[in-house]
Write a structure and sequence with these properties.
- InterPro entries: KFase/CYL, KFase_sf.
- With 257 residues, this protein is an alpha/beta fold.
- It has one domain: Glucose Oxidase, domain 1, CATH 3.50.30.
- Helix content is 19%, strand content 28%.
- The chain has six helices and 14 strands.
- The strands form four sheets. The chain has a seven-stranded mixed β-barrel. It has a two-stranded antiparallel ribbon with strand order 2-3.
- β13 and β14 form a beta hairpin.
- α5 runs parallel beside α6.
- The chain is globular and about 65 Å long.
- It starts with a helix and ends with a strand.
């Protein structure tokens, strides 16, 4: 039996399941909010074109209004100044969008400290315990933050000092950029911590990761259903010509627990 037939057989037989890691995309989906004087992207809205009416008696369809970086989305290298000469989302090779998934879980730490930062020591400990990160793989940072996604205020967790959400330290971002992964995925609104604007450089995961021709994934869900290793990730952004990113449907193929 060939490889594809084996996979299809495992799927139909239930040995492998397909897990949707995507947040539902609606007008209520949280979006990143930057302070003045910076401009912000728009949330999703739908504009009816026809709905089985005089404008289209047999069909219903809508125009979509939203930003590239809304909901579960992919950050392409050209999204950031350090990657501005890199790939737009339509030019990312499909082979870079499918690969092994590795989950690193700091749910307990984040429950006690919403500003928790993933650093080199955490990443080195993960490698020592489970082996090196796979070439072309995706490191997924499980924090439990997706449990807040139905409440925009709780998801942002902001006060007068700005948002307080978990992320990665400057040294951790450098570690990720030097690693063999294709990309880094999070449950939060963006790939950087809520307080990352005050770091040096600002937003270090964007700075280092995208500058190293790697990709970011945001607002993932169901990471608790993935094993630490042994799953495969499939990332499906829209191939927007010249796009700096795109909303994406993200799946994982994993052995059934």
């Amino acid at each position: 039996m060939d490889v594809i037939s084996s996979l299809l057989s495992a799927l139909s037989g239930g040995e492998v399941e397909i897990l949707d890691l995507t947040s539902p995309l609606s007008p209520a989906t949280p979006v990143l909010s930057l302070p003045e004087p910076f401009a912000n992207t728009i949330p999703l809205s739908l504009e009816k074109v026809s709905d089985f009416d005089a404008d289209g008696p047999f069909w219903s369809w809508n125009n979509i209004h939203t930003g590239e970086h809304t909901g579960t989305h992919l950050d392409a290298p050209v999204h950031w100044a350090t990657g501005r000469d890199g790939l737009s989302v339509d030019r990312i090779p499909p082979s870079r969008l499918v690969g092994p998934a590795v989950v690193i879980d700091f749910t307990d730490e984040v429950a006690g400290d919403p500003d928790f930062l993933l650093g080199p020591d955490h990443l080195d400990a993960r490698v020592a315990e489970n082996g090196p990160l796979p070439e072309g793989g995706w490191l997924l940072f499980r924090t439990g933050w997706s449990s807040r996604s139905g409440d925009a205020a709780a998801f942002a967790n902001a006060d007068d000092g700005g948002p307080h959400t978990p992320g990665v330290s400057v040294a951790g971002a450098e570690w990720l950029a030097a690693s063999p992964i294709s990309g880094f995925g999070v449950e939060t609104v963006g790939i950087d911590a809520g307080q990352a604007g005050g770091m040096e450089p600002p937003f270090p995961v964007h700075h280092h990761l995208l500058g190293a021709d790697k990709y970011g994934l945001t607002q993932l869900q169901n990471l608790d259903r993935l094993p630490a290793t042994g799953a495969m990730l499939v990332v499906s952004p829209l191939p927007i010509v010249g796009g700096t990113g795109s909303p994406a449907r993200v799946y994982a193929l994993a052995p059934r627990a």
